[in-house]
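Mods, move this if it's the wrong board.
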Amino acid sequence: MHTTRHALDTRATLLMVGLCFTWALAQIVLKYTAADMAPTLQIAVRSGGAAILIYLMVRWRKQTLFTLAGAWKPGLVVGALFAGEFFLVGEALRYTTASHVSIFLYSAPIFAALGLHLFSPDERLGKVQWLGVVLAFVGIAISFLGNDGDQNTAQSPNMLLGDALALLAGAFWGVTTVVVRGSRLKHATATETLFYQLVGALVILASGAVLMGQTQITWTTALIGSLLFQIVLVSFISMLVWFWLLRLYLASRLGVLSFMSPLFGVVLGAWLLDEVISLNFLVGAVCVVAGILLVSGQEWFFSKKASGNPTASRG
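Not the wrong board. Structure tokens:
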């Protein structure tokens, strides 16, 4: 049955502000509690906890978790990509700032748009969107080239490595979107797709943490609060709200508002973690966000047929 999706209203806008703030804060709490538990292990724990909550919710609703025959094959691919993305995020946070991770991770819509342009004839990039792609990559280059000599780099000599890992994580996120859109998963329920991703992250990231010796845990109030926040709010409630919004509202409009996540990430990193925002990084970040807006918001800003690319689930 065809469902008419609506333009954004006040309710949807306020919910998106809350979601973007929550997703940005996730990077901050990971960085803040990294000394108590490695970020990679934290993400594994939060993924496993959220997977359990998804399963219990489906059982409570007396629904079926696996609704689409054969979806497990692309589900394994998506789970591996999701795990790879957050493994890179966890490692990036060891070397660079949370604000840098927020900007580079949320370059994902650029990579998704490029992938969909190549593999989906209905989602070719227009001239304005190509301008957005170029602008975003110029911003990335400015951010990278401007790292040498700033205060953050002096404190973290491997900052460029961390930035590169965060950018690669954004590419993994973009590829995940392409796989979801080009496979049977596009017909699967949101809970099924999310479950594949969460279980994949649990298995692969927990194994990675063990192999790399990142299993040391110092139980503190901050760490317990961080894990509860990540499991319940980041990987469970925020995802359910996101998929609910996608069912009711135009995905391209929601995608435009997601630009608030990297902006919140930069502000929160500077405020809560005392991260220094260099001029080069600030200029580069503005270019990246502007590029994302041009790629994701063509329909909104230019009243043309969308070649939109709603992003795959977070968590």
